[in-house]
C-alpha cells in the first residue's frame, strides 16, 4: 500500500445523501449490508452527546489534483489495479464539525510487497495481510473521508476495510482490486 490522504470533500454529504449506503461488494449481499444498516439506524437515534457516529457511507474511486483537492468521486466496488489509483470511503456523521478518532483495519487477499506509512500504526496481523491504523480525522460539514492509493505490488483480489468511528459499531467496505483489461 502506498500512503493515504486525508481528503477535504466538500460534496461528500451530497454523495452520501443521494447515493445511499454503497458499502458492499459483489461477493457479499447480506451480512455486511445488514450490519452497516443497523449501525446507521442506531446512530440516527443516538444523542450527539455520546460522540460521533456514522449515519451513511459510500465507497469508491477518487480523482485527486496534485494539491489533494478532490476533482471527482465515483461510487464503485471495484478498484483498477493501476499504480496511484486513489480509492476510499466517505462517512456522513451525526456531528457537523470537530475531530474524530478512527481505527481503520484493512485486510488484503494476500500479503502486499509493502505497507505504506500514514496514520499511527495500531497493529499488523502475523500473516501481514491486515493492517490497523489509528487516525484522527477532521469533520468537514458532517463528513469524514479516508483514501488509499494502489501501489506497485498490491495484490489483486477481495479486500475488506473496517472503520470504527470513536465508540460506534464498525462500518465495513468490501471491494475487489482488479487488473485492468
How would you explain this protein's 3D organization?
- The chain is mainly β.
- Helices cover 13% and strands 43% of the residues.
- The chain contains two helices and ten strands; from the N terminus they run H-H-E-E-E-E-E-E-E-E-E-E.
- The strands form two sheets. A six-stranded mixed β-sheet has the order 3-10-9-5-7-6, with helices on one face.
How many helices does DSSP assign?
Answer: 2
Strand order of the largest sheet: 3-10-9-5-7-6
Q: What amount of the residues lies in strands? A: 35-45%
Structural class: mainly beta
Q: Could you tell me the radius of gyration in angstroms?
A: 15 Å
Q: Spans with pLDDT under 50 lasting ≥5 residues?
A: 1-27
**How far apart are the first and last residues' alpha carbons, in Å?**
22 Å
Could you give the count of β-strands? 10
The biggest beta sheet is recorded as: 6 strands, mixed
Task: Say what oligomer this is.
Answer: single chain
Query: How would you describe the shape?
Result: globular
Indicate the mean pLDDT: 82
Give the H and E element order.
Answer: HHEEEEEEEEEE
What level of helicity do the residues show? 10-25%
